[in-house]
From TrEMBL:
<dbReference type="Pfam" id="PF02971">
    <property type="entry name" value="FTCD"/>
</dbReference>
<keyword id="KW-0206">Cytoskeleton</keyword>
<dbReference type="GO" id="GO:0030412">
    <property type="term" value="F:formimidoyltetrahydrofolate cyclodeaminase activity"/>
</dbReference>
<dbReference type="Pfam" id="PF04961">
    <property type="entry name" value="FTCD_C"/>
</dbReference>
<dbReference type="Pfam" id="PF07837">
    <property type="entry name" value="FTCD_N"/>
</dbReference>
<dbReference type="InterPro" id="IPR012886">
    <property type="entry name" value="Formiminotransferase_N"/>
</dbReference>
<keyword id="KW-0290">Folate-binding</keyword>
<comment type="similarity">
    <text>In the C-terminal section; belongs to the cyclodeaminase/cyclohydrolase family.</text>
</comment>
<dbReference type="InterPro" id="IPR051623">
    <property type="entry name" value="FTCD"/>
</dbReference>
<dbReference type="InterPro" id="IPR022384">
    <property type="entry name" value="FormiminoTrfase_cat_dom_sf"/>
</dbReference>
<keyword id="KW-0456">Lyase</keyword>
<dbReference type="GO" id="GO:0030409">
    <property type="term" value="F:glutamate formimidoyltransferase activity"/>
</dbReference>
<dbReference type="GO" id="GO:0005794">
    <property type="term" value="C:Golgi apparatus"/>
</dbReference>
<dbReference type="InterPro" id="IPR004227">
    <property type="entry name" value="Formiminotransferase_cat"/>
</dbReference>
<comment type="function">
    <text>Folate-dependent enzyme, that displays both transferase and deaminase activity. Serves to channel one-carbon units from formiminoglutamate to the folate pool.</text>
</comment>
<dbReference type="InterPro" id="IPR036178">
    <property type="entry name" value="Formintransfe-cycloase-like_sf"/>
</dbReference>
<comment type="function">
    <text>Binds and promotes bundling of vimentin filaments originating from the Golgi.</text>
</comment>
Amino acid sequence: MSKLVECVPNFSEGRNKEVIDAIADAISNTEGCSLLDVDPGASTNRTVYTFVGSPEAVVEGALNAARTASPLIDMTKHSGEHPRTGAMDVCPFIPVQNTSMEDCVTCANLFAQRLSDDLHVPVYLYGEAARKESRRSLPAVRAGEYEALPEKLKKSEWAPDFGPATFVPSWGATVTGARKFLVAYNVNLLSTKEQAHRIALDIREQGRGKDQPGLLKKVQGMGWYLDEASLAQVSTNILDFELTPVHTVYEEICRFAKELSLPVVGSQIVGLIPLKAMLDCADFYMQKENLFIVEEEHKVRLVISKLGLDSLGPFVPKERIIEYMVDNTQENHLVSQPLQQFVRSVGARTAAPGGGSVSAAVAAMGAALGAMVGQMTYGKRQFESLDCTMRRLIPPFHQAMNDLLVMVDTDSSAFNSYMVGGVKCSCRGSYLPAGALWKCSLQVRPSGEEPFSCHSNTCIHSTGQKFGHTFSFNVFSLIS
């Protein structure tokens, strides 16, 4: 699989469509870059761009965007609700696929060096790329915003990491760095800006200061008013959605809003969101309300409804969930091929796809049959007594089906990666993938009944118990 880094530059222009489109074109026309999302805001006067590509390509794409913006954005005339320090306010790099945080730190440093050389502007490093602990937090670097830069740049402790310690009125300064995936999430209130900000102070980690910390870890927040929507928002950045999930932010804001007798009227994702963040929300509401949902599409739909993500505009999953967007930029997977094409590719004069991919496909079909029987039993009046059993059994079959489908491509990719290394293992005179030959044993059963079993040999990278005692991969033989 190719290396992918995500880049999310924020530009201080959200009203002039010609400027917004020119920057988007600069990114789209960069070889190796795929522009996934453009999210402008009139009240914030800011546009968030999201694109992916190889580490080298995203650095070039960010530079092309900055070069395009330089003559088009004049910070001396800028105003908006969002904090900012420059025309290209912030430009983070985020690992997506086959890349590490260290790769993204390298991207940030290379980008900062080249940006400062090209445009002669001050550039700061933040997040995982920060060279000083005091600069790890973006709000700390951005403190005082653009208006404070002339005096700030005169202080030795705020000398930029790259570029001149000189105030450039039309540009300001740029902050770049490396970080985990950030979820930009806003909750809508029919309230004043001040009421929204009061709630933001209660929930954000920074709170009202060191003596009055907020409730939620790894959450930044502020309140503002959206003139174009005639409502206020508690605007948050969730820096670690696994530590503080999106639904936790929403539920806590709703709780504080209720105490103030303020109506919550939906919420908004700015930019893209990881699929896991959506599924974590779905799991929360499914458990809270004892709901039975197995299809990923339905879980996503549940979250859109519960959080009101379509309150300010359509929330189209294929355009807002990063995994769906990235898949659209990649070559077709084996599992996306029509059955006839897949069978013919197995029968072709190539070593991959081979037995591992076929075994995974057959095992996936076996799991699918189990799921089918459960789905045809569940919810029917004559089998109502089995509903609880089916609710317990269908999800493991369904998950096994999805996991095994992934292995169809994993096996082939592992073999191809191993062949690139050119190492030959002696096993009936053939090349082997970088892994092991395993016996896949799938068992799902209610207590006291005979198990359904599906056995096949497949090559995988890792093994582990799943779904308690119902699903496991067991070693059949290992060639090393």
